[in-house]
Amino acid sequence: MLELALLFFVIAIIAGALGAGGVAGLTMSIAKWLVLLFLVLAVVSLLL
């Protein structure tokens, strides 16, 4: 899941550099939610 978040982050950086602001914003928000989901699942798995 973390690899997928990093992939979306890289896509957002490339899209932002090429001037596609809408695509960059969308992929950055997807990457942010994937990282948050990863952190929540990591904490839950450590506690259980």
TrEMBL record:
Membrane topology: Single-pass membrane protein
Subcellular location: Cell membrane
Superkingdom of source: Archaea
Source species: Natrialba hulunbeirensis JCM 10989
Transmembrane residue ranges: 29-47
Name of the protein in its database record: UPF0391 membrane protein C483_15701
Gene Ontology cellular component list: plasma membrane
Protein family: Belongs to the UPF0391 family.
HAMAP family documented for this protein: UPF0391 (MF_01361)
Keywords assigned: Cell membrane, Membrane, Transmembrane, Transmembrane helix
NCBIfam families, per database record: PRK13682.1-4
